[in-house]
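User: Predict the structure for this protein chain, please.
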Amino acid sequence: MPGEDDKSKSSKHNETMSIPMTSPLYLHPSDNPNLTFTTTIFNVDNYELWTDAVKNALDAKNKLGFVKGTVKKPEGIEGEDNLEMVAWRQCNTVLKAWLRNVIDPKLHPSITFTVTVSKIW
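Assistant: Here is the predicted structure, written as structure tokens:
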């Protein structure tokens, strides 16, 4: 049937276009914007303690490169054929939320319009 052939091509295309679990661009299903990955909340006076806690948490999730700036935004236009660009944007967005979750709300205005998580850092 003609419809089945189209579905199998689409399914094969989607299967080959995936982010490996070992990539920093991979988001686990449990990696959601509401995650609080440390109980240490940044309040200006505890920077060293907070950075250590956040670095440990991000390193455990293979996301430390985002704050260090070593995981660069891929070149090109976002879309179906640029899965890495989509994955990078999603990771950046989730990580911005994670950082916001562990920063004192009084400090949120200073990071609200920051585009990349490395700039927040």
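The chain is about 45% helix and 0% strand.
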